[in-house]
Amino acid sequence: MRHYNVECVCTTDDPVDDLHNHIEYAKIRTEKDPLMIPAWRPDKAMNIEKPEFAKYVEQLAEVSGVNIVKFADMVDALKKRHEFFEQQGSKLSDHGIEEFYDEPYTDSQIETVFEKAMRGQQLSDYEVRQFKHCFLTVMAEMDADAGWTQQFHYGAIRDNNTAMYNQLGPDTGFDSIGEFNTAKAMSKFLNKLNMEGKLTRTIIYTLNPCANEVIATMLGNFQGGEPGKIQFGSGWWFNDQMDGMIRQMNALSVLGLLSRFVGMLTDSRSFLSYPRHEYFRRILCNLLGNDVEKGLLPDDRETLGRMVEDISYNNARRYFKFY
Questions:
Q1: 16, 70 in Cβ contact below 8 A?
Q2: In the chain, where do the E strands start and end?
Q3: CB neighbour class for 294 (10 Å; exposed up to 12, middle 13-18, buried from 19)
Q4: By C-alpha distance, which of 246, 179, 236 is closest to 206?
Q5: Are 123 and 54 in contact (CB under 8 A)?
Q6: Residue 169 — left, alpha, or beta (φ > 0 → left; ψ -120 to 50 → alpha)?
Q7: 93 three-class SS
Q8: pTM above 0.70, yes or no
Q9: What is the CA 214 to chain-centroid distance, rounded?
Q10: What is the pLDDT along the chain (323 residues), one digit of tens a residue?
Q11: For 66, what's the count of Cα atoms within 13 Å in the CB-facing half-sphere?
Q12: Residue 202's beta-bridge partner residues?
């Protein structure tokens, strides 16, 4: 990490994680070492349709010290864990969702759905979507109150091959791009938070490039308060290759503001993924250079160079407020 001049690394952590590695690292870190910050990933607490949900709630109750009998208790437990993560430096959440949700719900309905899940009863698709809508709203409000940045990675269909899932478990390579008609639900979700003054800095990543223009235009509806508050996340997963990166940046450039883009992320757990940043920078420079040659941009090396530096480094440093 020192060799690559890494300044900050964010890990992906479940609310029940004890973060002992972060705690121990903080004790020995020197000024020359990068920051290591946990990122809040509460997917297991959201996925109420999973058979292991009740078991997970028991784990959450144990680590939080909250007796979870109803959904309101679960929120209290998550709040305590959220505060614990913040004490360890966390300023960022991430949510892996198939799509956005806008099914209306009441508190009593959510409590009923939660109780059914804890008893192992079958939930309807509508009840699952109600719960996920409520859960994501609660998490977004929590992030806003703490001044965090929230991220949404959507559009994946996971674990398509049941035979291999049974053999190897979840997230072992049998995932694909999904098609979801989610634009209206995304709009309603962001609008509700915005109306309540609870829309924090937000980054939206799509796995389906067909939604690039949808997101690029959605951003402009909810900007305000700070530059580039709502971001179109970089090409992700199947799209973090040349064509995917170019399509994402072209959509943002045409329909949004490329100069405010926070750039590429290394969404993996491998040192071998670090060159992805260099790959991204070369593609970005090539994209701008081609436009200069076509006469679409002025040949102003100073201005364009500053923009590349901002997208590659400065924007992210200002945006995430890690240090």
A1: no
A2: 8-13, 35-40, 92-97, 149-154, 156-157, 176-177, 201-206, 230-232
A3: exposed
A4: 236
A5: no
A6: left
A7: strand
A8: yes
A9: 17
A10: 888 888 999 999 999 999 999 999 999 999 999 999 999 999 999 999 999 999 999 999 999 999 999 999 999 999 999 999 999 999 999 999 999 999 999 999 999 999 999 999 999 999 999 999 999 999 999 999 999 999 999 999 999 999 999 999 888 889 999 999 999 999 999 999 999 999 999 999 999 999 999 999 999 999 999 999 999 999 999 999 999 999 999 999 999 999 999 999 887 667 778 889 999 999 999 999 999 999 999 999 999 999 999 999 999 999 999 98
A11: 18
A12: 150, 230
Q: Could you give the CA distance from residue 55 to residue 73 in angstroms, rounded to a whole number?
A: 15
Q: Are strands 230-232 and 176-177 parallel, antiparallel or unpaired?
A: unpaired
Q: Strand pairing partners for 230?
A: 202
**Burial environment of residue 237 by CB neighbours within 10 A (0 to 12, 13 to 18, 19 or more):** middle
Measured distance CA(25)–CA(247) in Å, rounded: 39
C-alpha–C-alpha distance, residues 238 and 244, integer Å: 8
Task: Quickly tell me which residue has 């098609």 as its tokens.
Answer: 179
| Rounded-to-integer distance, Cα 91 and Cα 195, Å | 23
Q: Which of 173, 156, 121, 120 lies closest to 43 in space, CA to CA?
A: 156
